[in-house]
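not sure who needs this but someone in the group chat was asking about Sulfatase-like hydrolase/transferase from Paenibacillus radicis so here u go. i didnt clean anything up, its just raw.
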Amino acid sequence: MREQQAVRKKPNILFLIADDHRFDGLGAYGNPVVQTPVLDQLAAEGVLFKSMYTMGGQTAALCVPSRACLLTGANVFNTTAACKEVTLGETENQDLWALNPALATLPEVLRADGYRTFGIGKWHNGKGSFARGFAGGANIFFGGMGDHVGLPLHAFDPNGIYPQEMAVLSDTFSSELFADEAINFIHSHQEDDPFLLYVAFTAPHDPRTPPQEYADLYHAENIPLPDNYMTEHPFDNGELYVRDELLASLPRQPGEIRQHLADYYGMITHLDVQIGRIVQALQQSGHAEDTIIVYTADHGLALGQHGLLGKQNLYEHSIHIPLLMQGPGLPQGVEVGGLGCQIDIFPTLCELTGTRLSDTVEGRSLMPLISGQETMLRESVFSAYKNVQRMISDGRWKYIRYYSSGDKGSNRIQLFDLYKDPWEMSNLADDPLQQTHIQRLEGELLRWQQSVRDPLLHHS
């Protein structure tokens, strides 16, 4: 029996997810300033996905719906327990945190298939779903954000209760602490069963307080402002004064934005070094050859682009995310250009590991794009933010619809040609020559909203 298990052993999965790391915050995606040698090497040895998107969410804490989509492979309006009951006036309800119990999660499916599932770091999707998915864990943070030293962390609770009074405040920087636990797990794993090691960092989310050595790598005066830097957003997008937007002065000041970017890059480089330690542990333990490494983020954020600071919007800087995969079953040095969505990661990993896919997964495996059998998996991607913004993009043409809600928001549209205008600076909505694109995208967006039962349709 032991020999039979060894013959059919599935690859391990090391799943690394960052918080607030936008797609262009890596050297591999063309950023000439930030230093990410480990992630760049991972991209060079594996697959880099150029056009991966999040679906947004109904809450300003966008890490909740983004991670829910990733973990369940389902659309953003179906992923959390309260989605169908949420009204427009209750979008910050913490009931949104808990995953829809009718949906199987990636850890659950892999655990049922014989994987040893082990969770480390941030889990913002309810204690019950963590307990169902993971057979082990360490330094678990049930929450959205906190200081990187002093996070309330839980040891693994086999009963899955995790009482708040049992949390212990950390005394080590979060990225280092989570990497330490991942390394301990890798070196201690001796079983024949494959593992899913899920490591969820709280970096580079604010407070952006990189250790001094990494802060010293970036000086604000040397940091270029993005091409679409603005002192203020040109209109009310429905969420101009949420917490994230108030972390810098209004109107935006160039020097202050440069400092935010310097701190952000310092956090990312420190994170990159910690990931390097984990990858080295894989190599030292002999697990490197049979482990799929995944690196992604829940969403991005603005940091001065379009006059915004946070991620509560549907511009590229906030919904376009990095995704790197490297390991057995994957080619080396491949860049995938076709459109993809977070919900596609779940079925991709199931195909790579030969794991039966749950019937509740709506995503599509990215393997046809990876192998080159297909150049297009999705004709369009979609995203939503609360009851004030909706988006569709076909990869070139991008349409954003804004709605008024009470005394916030504006009834207007934007149309961008991402080929000619990747920074989304020239709104073509009033161009008579582009009306066919607008009509086409509006119709496709409406059909998607109807198919996923977008609650906005019942209130607009």
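also Residues 1-6, 83-92 have pLDDT under 50 and may be disordered. if thats useful
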